[in-house]
Specification:
By secondary structure, the chain is α/β, with parallel strands linked by helices. It is built from ten helices and eight strands. It folds into two domains: 149 residues, 3-Layer(aba) Sandwich (Creatine Amidinohydrolase, Chain A, domain 1), CATH 3.40.350.10; 108 residues, Alpha-Beta Complex (Creatine Amidinohydrolase), CATH 3.90.230.10. It has a six-stranded mixed β-sheet, covered by helices on one side. Strands 7-8 form a two-stranded antiparallel sheet.
Amino acid sequence: MTGGAPAGFESAFGAAEHAERLARFRAFIERKGIDVAVIADPANMHWLTGYDGWSFYVPQAVVVPVDGPALWWGRGMDAAGARRTIPTGVAEIMGYDDGHVHNTGSPATVDLARRLRGLGLGAAIVGVELDAHYWTARLQEVLAREMPSAIFRDVTGAVNRLRAVKSPAEVALMRKAARLVERMHAVIRNVARPGVPKHEVIAAAVAEGIRGADGVWGDYPAIVPMAPSGPDAAAPHLTWNDAPIPSGAPTFFEIAGVCRRYHCPQSRTLCFGAVPARYRKAEAAAHAAIEAGLSAARPGATAAEVAAAVLAAIRAHGFEKDSRVGYGVG
């Protein structure tokens, strides 16, 4: 069954942009000698086809053969969501029976293998995102067992590298997401005071991010708000609790504005009362590192060169950073 959003559905991207993305990915797998690719990373599925459903907790994938139409494959009940979100002509829809859900004896890749064999791909060279978060060892083991004549190759990161260069339409969504995260931080500055429970501050910020502004509504983020204080901030991935905002110790708020799944994350630090001198020194180092990174981020520069500039500025201020610099956005 061919996909196609019904009248009235406003797709973030048109069929032409998704077709161009699929063509670029097909060219990649063809150069690698791959006959068909199974893309299970939810963000990559969305980027290739436009599929937008909260269904990643069960097996699903976009199947991209070198020749022939792309295929959305997933749980039967989610096929309706695929038809509503994938623009007409981008991909055909294939749903498997619910009997494969949480069935360790007959997982969903039994169905996928059957369909690939039916397409004449039983002895194909098959690319699979072996490091995709939701593509489990069991799914891959059963797919290989059910397709003994196929050869499997890892294509982890292939779509991600194509996603790194944003189209004008993608950049426009990221700019809208940036407006949302600015509003969220403004709410945090207004609500946060010493003694106010953190969960109340986060609730206000999240509500603002979803409520949106200027005709832009907020989507759900891939990152939950982080809000550790003082020594806890050395553990960068602590979320929130009901502890009061402290005085005399900083609290950082790492949040993201999101528009149609496109993220603009931003972290800001608040400190009420007297700011310890060591935090002022760290603040100066952070500002210098940001400026150094922005100066190094020019066309033709590598990510390694940008990271080196950031780390050098941090060291010049008497600090050391032994983790990576930055992360992907969009």
